[in-house]
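Need a sequence for this fold. Nothing fancy.
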C-alpha cells in the first residue's frame, strides 16, 4: 500500500493510507467553511421560524428563545470566521488566493454555467475543465463575501437601535435572495450522487482522485503535475516525518566447516610429506 504524506495544515503532515485520494482542502479552509456554514444555517432556520410562525402571532410561546438563538448565531457568524482566520494566520495568503480565484472569471466558467443544465440530463454534453472552484461555487462564494458584512451590519442595527424598517427590509431581502443558493449548495453537497462525494473534502480534507480529475481537472493538474496525464498516484512512497523506518539486517553467515585432522606420521603440509 502506498502512503502519501500530504499537509492538511501548518502542523505536522498526515499520511493518507489510500493512494486513490488526494488532499483538496487544508484544515484552515475546512474550519473557515464550517465557521460560516453552521452559524449561517442556524440564523437562516431561526429567521424562517420567526417569519413563518411568530410574525402572524407574536404571542405564541418560545418566541423569545428563538429570537435569542437567532441573535446568538448571528454573533457567531460575525466572530467565528474572524477567529478562525486569526488562528490559522499563516494561511491568510491562501484565503486571499481563494477569494481571487472565486472572483476571477474566464470564458470556460461562462461556458460551464451555460452547459450545467444540459450536462445534468445528457451524458453527451461535456463541461469544460474547472479550477479549484467551478462556476456555481464561484457565484456562491461571491454572494457570500459581498453580503456577509451587510448581514452583520443590518442585524446589529435591528438589535441595538430598535425597530429599523429599512435595515430589516435589507436583512430580509438578502435572506430571500440567498435561499436558492443555500438549498442548491446543500442539495449538491448531500443529495446529488455525482457531487456529494466532495463533501468528504470538507470533513477530512481528502477526496477521491478520479472524482477530482473529473470535476476539477485544472486544479488537479496544477497541484499534482506528476500524475496529471494519467490520474494515477505516483509509485514512490513517502513516509510521515515521525515514522520509524526498519532497515532489515542481512542474514548471518553459517560458520565454516572444521578442517579434518592430519594423518598420523604425515605433515599437515603436503609439500613436506615423507
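Here you go.
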Amino acid at each position: 500500500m502506498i502512503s502519501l504524506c500530504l499537509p492538511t495544515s501548518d502542523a505536522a503532515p498526515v499520511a493518507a493510507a489510500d493512494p486513490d485520494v488526494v488532499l483538496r482542502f487544508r484544515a484552515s479552509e475546512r474550519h473557515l467553511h464550517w465557521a460560516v456554514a453552521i452559524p449561517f444555517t442556524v440564523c437562516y432556520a431561526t429567521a424562517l421560524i420567526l417569519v413563518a410562525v411568530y410574525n402572524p402571532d407574536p404571542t405564541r410561546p418560545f418566541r423569545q428563545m428563538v429570537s435569542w438563538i437567532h441573535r446568538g448565531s448571528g454573533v457567531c457568524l460575525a466572530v467565528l470566521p474572524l477567529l478562525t482566520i486569526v488562528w490559522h494566520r499563516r494561511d491568510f495568503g491562501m484565503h486571499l488566493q481563494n477569494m481571487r480565484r472565486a472572483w476571477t472569471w474566464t470564458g470556460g466558467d461562462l461556458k460551464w454555467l451555460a452547459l450545467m443544465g444540459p450536462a445534468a440530463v445528457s451524458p453527451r454534453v461535456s463541461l469544460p475543465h474547472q479550477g479549484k472552484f467551478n462556476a456555481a461555487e464561484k457565484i456562491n462564494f461571491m454572494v457570500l463575501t459581498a453580503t456577509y458584512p451587510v448581514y452583520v451590519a443590518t442585524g446589529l442595527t435591528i438589535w441595538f437601535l430598535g425597530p429599523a424598517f429599512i435595515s430589516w427590509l435589507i436583512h430580509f431581502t438578502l435572506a430571500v435572495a440567498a435561499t436558492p443558493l443555500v438549498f442548491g449548495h446543500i442539495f449538491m453537497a448531500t443529495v446529488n450522487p455525482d457531487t456529494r462525494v466532495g463533501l468528504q473534502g470538507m470533513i477530512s480534507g481528502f477526496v477521491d482522485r478520479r472524482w477530482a480529475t473529473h470535476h476539477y481537472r485544472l486544479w488537479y493538474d496544477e497541484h499534482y503535475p506528476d500524475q496529471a496525464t494519467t490520474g494515477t498516484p505516483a509509485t514512490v512512497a513517502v513516509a510521515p516525518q515521525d515514522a520509524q523506518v526498519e532497515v532489515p539486517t542481512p542474514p548471518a553467515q553459517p560458520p565454516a566447516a572444521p578442517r579434518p585432522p592430519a594423518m598420523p606420521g604425515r605433515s599437515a603440509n603436503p609439500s613436506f610429506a615423507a
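For context: The radius of gyration is 31 Å.
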